[in-house]
Structure to design on (606 residues):
């Protein structure tokens, strides 16, 4: 039962087979392991062999995961010599067409090769972005624009920006816009946008397709924008540095391939160039039953929708899909102990298709135990005469972290496994604001709609959202699950049976259709539970996991606004759909310039 969640500013908590892992003769250990370096190389060779002398660009290469029943039976049989088929899904551009290719690695062959002709394009490659970002520097009109502004070309840096879709009927080519910034005395280029220049690059021709220099707006000053090693301003800052985490006996989790065991938890952790972290087959050991009980079959970030609210000419189209357009995994950065992960962290590297070739992504995920003096459970008993009983259990958890730097923003994704059996998912947002250069130097001068807040002289921080949507395929204590809404309903005391006037009670409702399970949070007192309807506790209660949202919001745009059509999956905070392996990406498989016809909002039935 996949559950899609959407949250803004962001976090949700969610809370329910067994898995065994052993080394195999196949070079990978587990049917859900992402492709190894040699498998990626094999993919490249197989695809290139069938397109000799033709340029092929690889936009996405990932594991075509086996169907869920196959994986579950592999686990229960515990027989590594009978591994499910090992396949890759490859999205390429060949001769200006998008191909969706399934490669069978065991037979070294292409199983299918389909041309996708619908709306939208695959993820951008980092290579093509890098090439495009250099084009303006040999383009005379751009050189003149920079000179006209009194700026020095060698201090200019350009960055790719996707263009979205605004109702055009005609299918447009693959293209991006470039947004240019000025360094000259700072490394914080995002604070120094060069406004008024529109550069459209046709990606298939790799040429500047249109260029416009409209207006001159001052480039914000470099002063005060530096962020590298800021000088401590006060004694207290000095004292805050240098905190250390000691774990003299080493970590208490173990890694067997990609399978992590910690406390009662067991789960598989992997990496995908689009989704980033993928947690699979999370299960928790039940001491009473002497067995692992399943919780989460597969969980990952499905989409990250970031629409800006600035309608000015160079800004209205900044409506990004950070996973589907730029790749949340592709944008991940190398992590280091004591720089983003604590000193007791262990680091995992994976293989990835990047810059036109298979390579390694070292230290892209870190895993560490967290203990910060918090309390998991406590009680002080004072009611017993002559006795004070105080019992405390400290909260220790295990965190799996990745940091994706998508342009100016850095997303810190944490999956935190707790001893209580819950999994807390947090996405922290840091980095730089995306700002617009402006005439204004003081708030009192602003008389028109500014679409943001003046954050420094000549610098407007634009209003925008970050909607993070998670795909959570829960299998709580077994494969068959239902989604239950526990509505907290108030009733009036109708006779004099009680001195009270009102009370509330729980009215449970099992979702029968997909539309029953669409939820806009905040519209009533509601608990959401994924239960296994076939199992009960010894007391006869349902067995399930609560989905505990953080502060969730919804979109404020109307259904007919083009970005909102593409991001229609944000309309509800929770959607529940039946298992379908190909319905992974809430914004559709081809998100760049999508028209919203392949989103979760379209798959979900009334
Ligand atoms: C392949 O790409 C190279 C470099 O981008 C280019 O020079 C060449 O003309 C391309 N070949 C074909 C057949 O398109
Ligand atoms: C009063 O109402 C309660 C429930 O609201 C009910 O159980 C009870 O029987 C009622 N008593 C009388 C006297 O009607
Ligand atoms: C799975 O999803 C795809 C894409 O939405 C759809 O085309 C296909 O019919 C679905 N398969 C099943 C069995 O529902």
């Amino acid at each position: 039962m996949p559950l899609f969640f959407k949250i803004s500013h962001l976090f949700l908590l969610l809370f329910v087979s067994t898995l065994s892992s052993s080394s195999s003769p196949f070079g990978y250990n587990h049917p859900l392991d992402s492709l190894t370096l040699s498998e990626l190389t094999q993919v490249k060779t197989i695809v290139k062999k069938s397109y000799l002398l033709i340029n092929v660009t690889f936009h996405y290469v990932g594991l075509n995961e086996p169907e869920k029943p196959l994986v579950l039976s592999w686990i229960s049989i515990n027989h590594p010599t009978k591994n499910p088929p090992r396949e890759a899904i490859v999205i390429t551009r060949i001769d200006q067409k998008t191909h969706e290719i399934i490669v069978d690695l065991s037979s070294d062959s292409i199983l299918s090769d389909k041309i996708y002709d619908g709306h939208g394009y695959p993820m951008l490659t980092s290579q093509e972005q890098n090439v495009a970002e250099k084009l303006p520097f040999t383009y005379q009109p751009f050189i003149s624009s920079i000179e006209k502004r009194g700026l020095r070309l060698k201090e200019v840096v350009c960055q790719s920006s996707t263009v979205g879709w605004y109702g055009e009927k005609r299918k447009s080519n693959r293209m991006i816009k470039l947004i240019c910034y000025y360094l000259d005395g700072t490394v914080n280029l995002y604070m120094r946008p060069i406004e008024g220049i529109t550069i459209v690059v046709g990606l298939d021709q790799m040429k500047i397709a249109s260029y416009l220099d409209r207006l001159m707006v001052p480039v914000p000053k470099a002063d005060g924008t530096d962020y590298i090693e800021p000088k401590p301003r006060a004694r207290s800052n000095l004292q805050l540095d240098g905190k250390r985490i000691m774990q003299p006996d080493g970590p208490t989790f173990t890694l067997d391939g990609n399978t992590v065991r910690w406390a009662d938890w067991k789960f598989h952790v992997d990496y995908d160039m689009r989704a980033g972290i993928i947690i699979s087959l999370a299960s928790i050991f039940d001491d009473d039953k002497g067995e692992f009980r399943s919780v989460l079959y597969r969980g990952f970030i499905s989409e990250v929708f970031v629409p800006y609210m600035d309608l000015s000419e160079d800004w209205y189209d900044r409506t990004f899909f950070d996973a589907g357009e730029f790749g949340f995994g592709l944008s991940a950065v190398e992590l280091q102990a004591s720089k983003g992960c604590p000193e007791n962290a262990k680091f995992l590297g994976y293989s990835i298709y990047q810059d036109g070739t298979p390579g390694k992504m070292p230290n892209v995920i870190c895993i560490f135990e967290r203990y910060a003096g918090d309390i998991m459970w406590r009680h002080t008993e004072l009611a017993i005469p002559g006795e004070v009983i105080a019992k405390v259990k400290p909260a220790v958890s295990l965190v799996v972290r990745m940091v994706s730097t998508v342009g100016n923003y850095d997303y810190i994704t944490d999956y935190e496994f707790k001893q209580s059996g819950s999994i807390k998912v947090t996405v922290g947002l840091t980095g730089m604001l995306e700002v617009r250069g402006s005439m204004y130097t003081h708030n009192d001068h602003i008389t028109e709609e500014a679409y943001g807040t003046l954050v420094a002289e000549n610098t407007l921080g634009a209003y925008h959202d970050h909607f993070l949507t998670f795909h959570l395929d829960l299998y709580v204590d077994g494969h068959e699950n239902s989604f239950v809404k526990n509505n907290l309903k108030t009733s009036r005391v109708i006779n004099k049976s009680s001195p009270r006037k009102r009370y509330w009670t729980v009215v449970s409702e099992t979702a029968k259709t997909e539309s029953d399970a669409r939820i806009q949070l905040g519209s009533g007192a509601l608990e959401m539970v994924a239960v296994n309807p076939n199992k009960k506790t010894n007391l006869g209660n349902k067995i399930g996991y609560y989905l505990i949202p953080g502060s969730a919001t919804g979109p404020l745009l109307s259904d007919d606004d083009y970005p909102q059509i593409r991001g229609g999956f944000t309309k509800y905070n929770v959607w529940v759909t039946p298992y379908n392996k190909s319905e992974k990406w809430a914004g559709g498989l081809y998100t760049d310039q999508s028209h919203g016809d392949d989103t979760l909002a379209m798959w979900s039935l009334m």
In short: Residues 54-55 surround 2-acetamido-2-deoxy-beta-D-glucopyranose (ligand 1) (CB under 6 Å).
